[in-house]
Amino acid sequence: MLIEVFGPGCAKCETLAKNAKLAVEQSGGAHEIVKISDYAAMAARGILSTPALAIDGKLRIQGKAASPDEILKFLQG
Amino acid sequence: MSDHPPCTCAPSNGPTGEKLPGFLRKGGWLCLALPAWVVLYMVIHRISEWIAFGLFGLTPKSHLGEAVAFFFYDVPKVLLLLTLVVFIVTFLQSFISPTKVRDVLSKRGTGLGNALASTFGILTPFCSCSAVPLFIGFLRAGVPLGVTFSFLVAAPMINEVALGMLLAMFGWKIALIYAGTGLAIAFLSGLILGRLRMEAHLEGWVQDALKAPAMGDGEEEEKSTLAERIHLAVQGVKDIVGKVWPFILAGIAVGALIHGYVPESFMAGLLGKKSWYSVPLAVVVGVPLYSNAAGVLPIVEALLGKGAALGSTLAFMMAVIGLSLPETVILRRVMRPKLIATFIGVVALGILLVGYLFNALF
């Protein structure tokens, strides 16, 4: 699955990216993580607060650094 | 492990210990935390005096003694208050999100929209790194520029944590004055900026983004359970207290120096109500100072204690937390210089008026 982490580079965004990586490791699956820091791209996706995380194009988390467990739940569907 | 007395505010069905779901164990921990909090809060004043005058052997009423006692009293006091305030505020915030606010505001025009935007600005979870996506997201959903500005002014200035701390440290009157004048500034600044028709002064890429069709507008929100909200609140306490304590220590150190060393006559001259320049001085000093809202409160406490006028002190506090340079730098990404200068100018003018008004009234 494709995991997109949106954030301009604040501390919370780094935490979310790190947690996404942990979740991918725990899931054991082959998921790709992409970091997006471009404001125009965030605007186009309708993101209102950062950090945000989308899985396979669907926005799942906005405005908080979700824990690895929370992200794992989305990965396992 | 299971011989702990069952806590009265946690449901008592089932044995305590490992079999309980996580949030119930956390619930038990929380209802121990509240009495512990109260006891700690009651003893810190004595402990601070013991540290300053007993342990360090400083003389009461001496400059150094008073400064040290202020420091050791204020550090635990502010941290304790902050913990409680952040817990309550984060819990309440879990009921409101920028997405919901956007949906409400996009259906309102100017006027009522500005009033709602200012009010929502108080409680909506907002950090300055989110300012840009939020700004564009609001505009794209059809929220007028002026209404968006009302929100952008209110969100940092009437910071929910600052408001809770003001209430705890200075009582409801000061908290109400702060919230009321902050709301008025946010409401009027938004109205004025909306009237000026500054849409052409948004950066080009923003104007393009506003024309582009929306590709989906965020996720539909899932309802959180009470346990998740409490978990979020505990997480908020860890995050925020963990992040702002250096600001608090710095703020309290400055406050302690003012408390111990700055003579009242000096403060009354500098920030007193009789000197015409005290309000602009407070704003000019406050804007470049970047501090968390919680860090500025010990300074405010010391200033008021030394006879600084209420209006000047309010102006100082609003300038520090409401107009910050980092946020301006971030907003510069979406606004051309003329718009950002107008934005700062209008808000600064509002702060000046509030300062003069309260110096004249009290």
In short:
The complex is a heterodimer of chains A (77) and B (362). With 77 residues, chain A is an alpha+beta fold.
Radius of gyration of chain A: 11 Å
Main β-sheet of chain B: number of strands, strand sense, barrel status? none
Specify the CATH class of chain A.
Answer: Alpha Beta
CATH 4th-level superfamily of chain A: Glutaredoxin
How would you sum up the major sheet of chain A?
A: 4 strands, mixed
Structural class of chain B: mainly alpha
Summarize the helix and strand pattern of chain A as letters.
Answer: EHEHEEH
* Molecular shape of chain A: globular
Mean pLDDT of chain B: 82
How does this model look, in words?
Chain A has 77 residues and is α+β, with helices and mostly antiparallel strands. Chain A has one domain: 3-Layer(aba) Sandwich (Glutaredoxin), CATH 3.40.30.10. Chain A is built from three helices and four strands, in the order E-H-E-H-E-E-H. Chain A has helices at 11-27, 39-44, 68-75, and strands at 2-6, 32-36, 52-55, 58-62. In chain A, helix 1 (11-27) links the parallel strand 1 and strand 2 (32-36). Chain A is globular, with a radius of gyration of 11 Å. The termini of chain A are close together. The mean pLDDT of chain A is 86. Chain B has a domain at 98-211 and 311-361. Chain B has 16 helices and no strands. Helix content of chain B is 72%, strand content 0%. The chains are: A alpha+beta (77), B mainly alpha (362). At the A-B interface, helix 1, helix 2 and strand 4 of A face helix 3, helix 5 and helix 9 of B.
Keywords:
A: 77 residues; alpha+beta; Glutaredoxin; 4-stranded mixed sheet; 4 strands; B: 362 residues; mainly alpha; 16 helices; 0% strand; disordered N terminus
